[in-house]
Design a protein that fits this description.
The chain is mainly β. It has a single domain, classed as Ubiquitin-like (UB roll), CATH 3.10.20. It is 7% helix and 27% strand. A five-stranded mixed sheet has the order 2-1-5-3-4, with no helix packed on it. The longest helix has 7 residues.
Length: 97
């Protein structure tokens, strides 16, 4: 079964506006931090309707890199549309044995 994201008719997505999101990169993702970021976090300006996948592409993370994305405390898929002032945490999956 495929999940479908429904966007209400009265919601407005302005592709021309910009927004800022706070991004934290954990573990060995720290070497993808842009100049000016602190130890593991930074604020990034994005276009108004940017998805998680679009943000990942702007961060130059490899497309085949397994990651877990949490937006405002909830796991988010690649098609999740980000909003102004979202908190985005990106982790690498871990395993043990």
């Amino acid at each position: 079964m495929t999940a479908v994201r429904v966007i209400p008719r009265n919601s407005k997505i302005d592709k021309g506006s910009t927004m800022e999101v706070r991004i934290k990169l954990f573990g060995n993702l720290g070497h993808y931090l842009p100049e000016g970021g602190n130890r593991f976090s930074f604020t990034k300006s994005l276009q108004g309707s940017t998805t998680v996948q679009g943000m990942i592409q702007e961060l130059n993370l490899p497309a085949n890199l397994p990651i877990i994305v949490i937006v405002n405390g909830r796991r988010a898929g690649l098609d999740h549309i980000l909003k102004d002032q979202d908190d985005v945490n990106i982790f690498r999956p871990t395993g043990g044995g």
